[in-house]
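FAQ
Q: What does a multi-component entry look like?
A: The components come first, one per line:
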Amino acid sequence: MKRADSIAGLIGLALSIFVIYSISNFPENQMTQVGPAFFPKFLAFGLGFFSLLLLITAFTQKKTMKAAHLNLKDPGLQRAGLSLSATILYCFVLDFFGFIASSVIFLLFLMFLLRERRYLQMITIACVTTGSVFLVFKIFLNITLPMGRLYGL
Amino acid sequence: MDFELFAAGFLSILQWKPLLMIFLGVTGGILVGSLPGLTATMGVALLVPFTFGLPIAEAMGMLLGIFSGAIYGGSISAILIGTPGTPAAAATLMDGYPLAQRGEAGRALSVSVVSSFVGGFTGALIMTFLSPQISKVALQFSAAEYFALATFGLSIIISVSGNSILKGIIAGLLGLLISTIGMDPISGYPRFTYGSIDLMEGPAFIPILIGLFAFAEVLKGVEELATREQIVSKISSVFPSMADIRRTWKDFSKSAILGTFIGSIPGAGSDIAAFVGYSEAKRRSKHPEKFGNGAIEGVAAAESANNACTGGAMIPMLSLGVPGDAVTAILLGAFVIQGLRPGPLLYRDHMDVVYSVFAAMMIANVAMLIVGLIGIRFFAKVITVRKGILLPIIFVLSIVGSYSMRNSLFDVWLALCFGVIGFFLQRYRFPVSPILLALILGPMAEANLRRALIISDGSMSAVLCRPITATFLALGVFFLITSIIRQSRLNKKTPLR
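Then the predicted structure of the entire assembly, as tokens:
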């Protein structure tokens, strides 16, 4: 965990420096000294202080908690990465292909990725889930999910 | 207490639509709670987007139904497969699972649902009578007091931080910084928006919530895809026997009051309440040696206490606008989405809504008893649903939930971003609840502190030396120090994993 904590400490420090730099351009309230920069400045200094403390603790502490090692060859992590990539792709195509078509394909892909192999059951679940979500949003909430650019052609 | 309004509140809930929503919420909550890995927080977070278009009575009925149902639901998997569905059910496991192994799963489940009902209903009753009194005091508050109240609420960050206090503080500060994105509440100056119109109002709460609690969890679930666990227990009876009721009534009654009290303390969640209730039952018992080996009193005490906590946690949320735990923080967000701000002004301006919430909470507990008893056999089957089916469905619900609030794909990207952040934060043992708490209380703390400073011509001492402000700040410091001491002791006792 030492390495992870050190990286987290460094990210926290970098973020606090970035915030302090960004707020240097904020206008100041001349009367009360409590302009838009007041609260973020206080928080950025706090974040910087505690991140530094985490960094020091990571270097000085002998015993730390074990954390899962970030091994890109780990099948579980690869599966999570693939699911995330599929979700990103799904979000990209959602507007073009519409909610119904994209969701059915997305669900089928994820189920396959998660080792499901009962194809008839998979197709039924994908269609029923997509249809139910679409109808609940359309009928009960009056929210139409993206229909896609191919709709109505 | 205005009994006319109270009756009107009940009548508004006793219509077919709110009742349907409560029953749907309870059923969904029990299902979510019974599935290990899916918490009450996640269930409520996922369902909030479904309540946008609903009237307040129906929306609150559904969400409170999920809240009550999920806390009870956690006991189902704790009893049947020895894995608590929610952290609150960890104490139930100690005696529930041994009972199931002895072939008495039905007995354990039925006592669990009845005790949960007694606890939940008592909590709701105490909430109904106590929170209006607290809100009357809160009506005297000005900006300085509100700032102190928000700071007091933020002091529970340590309690929800788990093993690492330092990481909890960092997560809280990160959440507070995120809450400053958007237009400055006093001057209107755009902060950290970098020209993005989508960020002008600040990052939307629901997508962040879904990202941190649902996306991150499903990514973790995908990574740790395990084999299906088989249930061996048989369910013979769904109703508790009179002998069991006689044996446990003292324990679940005492736990109900204890649980409500613990729930009303910000930061002390239902898991703590369950363990306190359990310990008290064990301490009182003539046969403490039976606890841990299948004592039905242990199941009753733990379940009553953790469900009583739901009503207790609603007390500070409704009367002061300070959430008692992560679920009530989301419920607070759901109120805001409905155009209402919990706190003393809610009691002054929307008393009808407040009484509807009280009624919804009580009826949700009755619904939980009915659904729980009828559904014991069915829920026992549902917990065997394969992750390969369940996780993809949660993926889609999370995306749709993030999109639906503003019909915006930007919010979906936001949820995805926070999902990835949440995944890594959890992986490296950074608690995510402090971020949520900070997002809720950050704007309240900042806006009121600055308002108070402007009123007092920039004098900090004039703000801090007001009696109520000083009391809240002192209480906040007290909570902070006791939480740090408690956590440090716990860390010493628990070996590093």
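Q: Is there any commentary attached?
A: Sometimes. For this entry: The CA atoms of residues 50 and 132 of chain A lie 47 Å apart.
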